[in-house]
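Thread: magnesium ion complex, take 2
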Amino acid sequence: MARVLLSNVHKFFDDVVAVKDISLEIKDKEFLVLVGPSGCGKTTTLRMVAGLEEISKGEIKIGDRVVNDVPPKDRNIAMVFQSYALYPHMKVYDNMAFGLRLRGHKKKEIDDRVAEAAEILELKELLDRLPKQLSGGQRQRVALGRAIVRHPQVFLMDEPLSNLDAKLRVQMRAELKRIHAKLQTTIVYVTHDQVEAMTLGDRIAVILNGELQQVDKPIIIYETPANRFVAGFIGTPPMNFIKGKLEKSADGNVTFECSSFKLNMPPSLHENVANYIGKEVTFGIRAEDIHDAKICRWTQDIATLETKVDFRELMGSETLLYVKIGGEHLVAKMDAMNDAMSGSNFPVMLNLRKLHLFDHQNQKAII
Ligand SMILES: Nc1ncnc2c1ncn2[C@@H]1O[C@H](COP(=O)(O)OP(=O)(O)O)[C@@H](O)[C@H]1O
Ligand SMILES: [Mg+2]
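Output below.
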């Protein structure tokens, strides 16, 4: 059993609260990604699991054992960092074998474990090379190999792909998925990159200012973000947000109104928003839920807005169209063939089945 359990974990650096009351269960064999902006406490959290940082308050269990006072070497974990720091004068084989030799493993055992890791990582042909004779991706694989040969209960990875160029990062992402499937081991993976989080995680834990915001499967976080921060952080381009107010007319119609437009809320949502009538809310909609009104044939749960094109970005497979209506700006994901010109009128249709509403005060999702 190699689950990791954090209970009310805190970390204080003098008067800085780096980690605030995090409770989180990482299941056996799970690939869990901790994601959040720089400085939010990801590395500190991981270092507390590793034992490299003392826990100020709370408890961490690995398996069934409380590890608060267990030194790192006895925690049965292996950590992979962004800077893979291979020994430059040692061949790949020796880089991987080094830790095992230090721990006094027998030669045969070391040979077997390095061979097994080399097989998993496709490094068999490279065991006699020096790090300088390897590409960035190969070096990162050796760094993973050093961790794999230890047969840890849990892998802790801190932005391990950040030093690679964009193309290699995408390749290594796929490889990590494959490696995890082969190893069947718990992985706690830290990144600031939401795409990495979405693509790698069985589940994602989103952190802001040392506090856990939401933990769930990637698709659930994407479809039903718990608050405005998560909604804006996960997804590219970021979700569109518009501040406004909910109103109810005499005939029972509920509207969202901002300085630039007004739209009818779908009747199916009236009950959910009943407590917010007359209150300020933030309306959210993703770029892919805004369509070209000229070609969209939907008739229910939609709103049409008469926007003007500001500018466009061709992404290859799609076009991002930046439009405005009054003082509000929206970005819409359109077909790559879309050729709407800057300054032209462009009616858009919002799919209100995909709308989000956030409490203006505490930023929590209302629907
Ligand atoms: N050794 C330290 N001493 C004082 N403050 C620290 C130390 N390590 C981290 N911090 C602070 O704790 C917060 C979280 O840092 P960190 O965990 O490294 O964030 P992340 O990995 O998410 O970028 C930051 O405000 C950082 O400045
Ligand atoms: Mg960090």
